[in-house]
Amino acid sequence: MKITIQKANERGSADYGWLKPNYYFSFSNYHDPSKVRFGLLRVLNDDFIAGGGAFPTHPHDNMEIVTIPFTGSLKHKDSTGGEGVIKAGDVQIMSAGAGVQHSEANASATEPVTLFQIWVYPKERNIDPRYDQRSFDINERINNWQYVVSPIEADGGLWINQDARFALTKLEAGKTINYENMFKGNGVYLVVINGSVEVEGKSLNKRDAAGIEETESFSITASEDAELLAIEVPMD
């Protein structure tokens, strides 16, 4: 088993006034050659968007883009005709495919939005662009993995054009949970959204992350109440 720890204070960051992002991987004006991607996980941005803040219409292609909000509400509109508002408990995915234009904006003029935006390289290139979103019952992830993105229908998550899976859990203090890969040879990028945990003897705190590879399973124990995101992706 190989575990690579990334502490929250080791992330890149920027301040655009209305947008304050933290970057787990090289993005925009932040570049660190040692932090370009984890397998086919290319982007993980931890964003704070002030009231009234907005990303104007811009293009994407051949990328699976997942948005997970934690507070506030985010409006979305794209050139496929997809549009909506997502909030805590919701997850959104966009397969940019052959090319799509989209915009995102804070739905409130005063309240901030906090979210993760995550990009994964696709399995098939140049597919028809598609967009989907869903609300999930947060109670169903207490001491349990809730699969919110997956190509496997039985997982109950949003479909992704990749052998990748996103799982969320709210782990109570003292509880242990195991993660088992769905796809052999995949790695898992584990992010502590809140709280503190131990992963195979290594301590992780709020917004710390661990890239876990060369294993098909691992265990996590909560040092205090914790919320976690596991992103399972092919490594090549």
Structural class label: mainly beta
Mean pLDDT equals 96
Q: Which H/E pattern describes the elements?
A: EEEEEEEEEEEEEEEEEEEEE
The top-level CATH class of the largest domain is: Mainly Beta
How does the SSE layout of this entry go?
Layout: E1 2-6, E2 12-13, E3 19-23, E4 41-49, E5 54-60, E6 64-71, E7 73-78, E8 83-87, E9 90-95, E10 100-106, E11 113-120, E12 130-135, E13 146-149, E14 165-171, E15 176-180, E16 187-194, E17 197-199, E18 202-204, E19 209-213, E20 217-222, E21 226-233
Antiparallel strand pairs: 1-19, 2-3, 3-4, 4-11, 5-10, 6-9, 6-11, 7-8, 7-10, 9-12, 13-14, 14-21, 15-20, 16-19, 16-21, 17-18, 17-20
Explain how this protein is built.
With 236 residues, this protein is mainly beta. The chain has 2 domains: 11-135, Jelly Rolls (Sandwich); 138-233, Jelly Rolls. 0% of the residues lie in helices and 52% in strands. The protein has strands at 2-6, 12-13, 19-23, 41-49, 54-60, 64-71, 73-78, 83-87, 90-95, 100-106, 113-120, 130-135, 146-149, 165-171, 176-180, 187-194, 197-199, 202-204, 209-213, 217-222, 226-233. It has a 7-stranded antiparallel β-sheet, with no helix packed on it. Strands 1-19-16-21-14-13 form a 6-stranded antiparallel β-sheet, with no helix packed on it. The protein has a 4-stranded antiparallel β-sheet with strand order 5-10-7-8, with no helix packed on it. The two termini are 17 Å apart.
Keywords:
six-stranded antiparallel beta sheet; 236 residues; Jelly Rolls; globular; mainly beta; 21 strands; 52% strand
